[in-house]
Amino acid sequence: MRRVYFDHNATTPIHREVAAFARKFLDQYFGNPSSLHWAGREVRPHVDEAREQVAALIKAKPEEIVFTSGGTEGDNQALKGVARARAAEGNHIVTTKVEHPGVLNTCAYLETQGLSVTYLNVDRNGMIDPDEVRRAIRKETILISVMQANNETGTLLPIKEIGAIAREAGVLFHSDMVQGLGKVDIDVNDLNVDLGAFSGHKAYAPKGVGALYIRQGVEVDNLIHGGQQEMGRRAGTENIIGIAAFGKACEIAVSEMAEEAARIEFLRRRLLDGLMMDVGNLHFNGETERRLPNTLNLSFEFVESESLLIGLDIAGIAVSSGSACSSGSTEPSHVLLAMGIEPLLCQSAIRISLGRANTEDDIEYALEVIPRVVGRLREMSPFYEGGKRP
Ligand code: PLP
Question: Cα–Cα distance between 72 and 206 in angstroms, integer?
């Protein structure tokens, strides 16, 4: 059966060159990078090189990169680390209602520890007004956390403007930048971020590795205590396979991102235009211009997203529904609900996220399959009155 992978925001396949490079650390280089002998010495430069490669992709200094286990750990480290380090200065955090659970649930935990959190609303396109962030700042505010790109809709939030507001107010600014890495240009200085969380497996590296950008001079308490790895900021023997692979993936992204993003954007537009032509009662969720090149969030009225997901899966097409990162969830998406999208439309939303694996043939196949599956499901719906188009 033909297989088409349209769920790159959930995870990406490992880039072939990345896998080939990482294999050396399974087969050959096994040393502990902290060891002084030959086995350690042959591994250590690869950790340093990876740090430089990640830094180069986001225009940071290598010493501002701390390797983590992924995006969730980066978010936890940033939020809990600032909450503890700045406890004497205040106890208030500003964030949005559309963040990933890595931020939202960490904020919920911090609330149980006596912090107070403001969750800002977004508009119908998932966009936030920077002035609302400004208005939410209080004298006890210590941190603002706003994601760069929403994982469900692809909307790009105005983090540069928010970062400038934070800086002017003397408040630290963290951004969950997991979905932007390798898809859009990132310059942490231009974007005014103090902390930024990244994840390897969203960018063609393996799962279980990520990075937290910590601007030079920014103090955060450690999340994990132990040895002196990662410049004393993240204890535990380094995940050398993941780190080397993540570095390599970032190096490849530096040279290929512009061309890939344009190619993927073209495919996404072709898919959207084709679906708009062939499927009636179709709603586009998210910002039309300020967005990731690869992501589409669409509500197919009169269709349950879970049924659509299964119908497409049977035809070999992998998409996601609901709160896509926690697959299996049947709860309506907190992101779409926060955007004010009617619950019924939330329940008929699917996310299609394209990536390196996709070709024009995949798009043509999807344009053949999706209208057919939607049409069949609508025929079974007691609410669908029928129309000329599926
Ligand atoms: N932040 C965002 C925006 C995400 O999409 C994800 C994906 O799951 C994460 C954080 C979590 O990253 P990880 O799976 O590396 O913990």
Answer: 15
Q: Which is the catalytic residue, given 107, 250, 325, 346?
A: 325
> Is residue 381 within 8 Å of 303, Cβ to Cβ?
yes
325 noted as active-site residue:
yes
Q: What are phi and psi of 72, to 5 degrees?
A: -65, -45
Burial label for 360, CB within 10 Å (0-12, 13-18, 19+), is exposed
What separation in Å is there between the alpha carbon of 177 and the centre of ligand 1? 9
CA nearest ligand 1 atom 10, residue = 71
Distance CA 187, CA 382 (A): 51
Q: How far apart are CA 244 and CA 47, in angstroms?
A: 6
From the alpha carbon of 73, which atom of ligand 1 is closest?
A: 16
75 CA from centroid of ligand 1 (Å): 9
Q: Compute the distance between CA of residue 378 and CA of residue 153 in angstroms, rounded to an integer.
A: 24
The residues near 103 (Cβ < 8 Å, ≥ 6 apart) are: 75, 79, 95, 145, 147, 176
- pLDDT tier at 324 (50, 70, 90 boundaries)? very low
Q: Ligand 1 pocket test: pick from 11, 103, 151, 212 the residue with the most ligand atoms within 8 Å of its Cβ.
A: 151
Q: What SS3 state is found at 112?
A: helix
Tens digits of per-residue pLDDT, 181-198? 999 999 999 999 999 999
Strands 320-321 and 317-318, how do they pair?
Answer: unpaired
100 lines ligand 1 (CB under 6 A): yes
Residue 325 has pLDDT above 50, yes or no: no
Nearest CA to ligand 1 atom 8: 325
Is residue 243 within 8 A of residue 45, CB to CB? The reply is: no
Answer whether 205's CB lies under 8 Å from 18's CB: yes
pLDDT tens readout for residues 58-88:
999 999 999 999 999 999 999 999 999 999 9
Tell me, using a 6 A CB cutoff, whether residue 180 lines ligand 1. no
**pLDDT more than 70, % of the chain:** 96
Q: What are all long-range contacts of 275-282, with beta carbons under 8 Å and residues at least 24 apart?
A: 275/367, 275/370, 275/371, 278/367, 278/371, 278/389, 278/390, 279/370, 279/371, 279/374, 279/389, 279/390, 280/387, 280/388, 280/389, 280/390, 281/387
| Spatial separation of the C-alpha atoms in residues 315 and 3, rounded to whole Å | 8
Q: Whose CA is closest to atom 7 on ligand 1?
A: 325
